[in-house]
Amino acid sequence: MLETIYEEYNRYIYHLCLKLTRNTVEAEDLMQEVWVKVVRYESYVESVDHIKAWLTTITMNTFRDRYRKNVRRSKYMMHQPEALDVPVLDLVANNELTTEEKVEQDVISAIVQTKVNELDTIYKKTLWYFYVDQYSLAEISNLMKVSIGTVKSRLFRAKARLKEILLSDHGIAETIMPA
């Protein structure tokens, strides 16, 4: 069972890892971690409906965990005694969000999710498949039984309509895009 999944999704996972890390060595390390987790959770495979979405989630979570670990490690390193002439690590920007930024991000996310629900079902499904399930255009085309061109058009129209809905609500427009 796992061999079949590996053969089918190995290239996809590698390309996703490469897209996330932008480095072949790190992508290979991340991919190895992902497959270790897949083997560890082999008992869940039977109950998974969408293997590709499940593998994508594992990959994204593994990447986030590694990123957080690296951020924590760099914070620890910044508090080391200054043995260098120039405290180089002080020049590295800390990419961790402040509490205010996290709250703002959560608020915006909730607003967008609410407004996505106002879209026609066909647009909502297309956005969901593309951005949440991370299906390719070809996969969405097969799922929805339409051409790839139609999927592209629906994605374009869904994003345009969502933008229109967001901007028509002046309170939300100011929250999302302050002047």
UniProtKB/TrEMBL annotation:
Residues 5-72 form the RNA polymerase sigma-70 region domain. GO terms for molecular function: DNA binding; sigma factor activity. The keyword ATP-binding does not apply. Residues 111-162 form the RNA polymerase sigma factor 70 region 4 type domain. One of its GO terms (biological process) is DNA-templated transcription initiation. Transmembrane segments: none annotated. Pfam families: Sigma70_r2, Sigma70_r4_2. The keyword Transcription applies. InterPro entries: RNA_pol_sigma-70-like, RNA_pol_sigma-70_dom, RNA_pol_sigma70_r2, RNA_pol_sigma70_r4_t2, RNA_pol_sigma_r2, RNA_pol_sigma_r3/r4-like, WH-like_DNA-bd_sf. Keywords: Sigma factor, Transcription, Transcription regulation. NCBIfam families: sigma70-ECF (TIGR02937). Belongs to the sigma-70 factor family. ECF subfamily. This is RNA polymerase subunit sigma-70. It comes from Caryophanon latum.
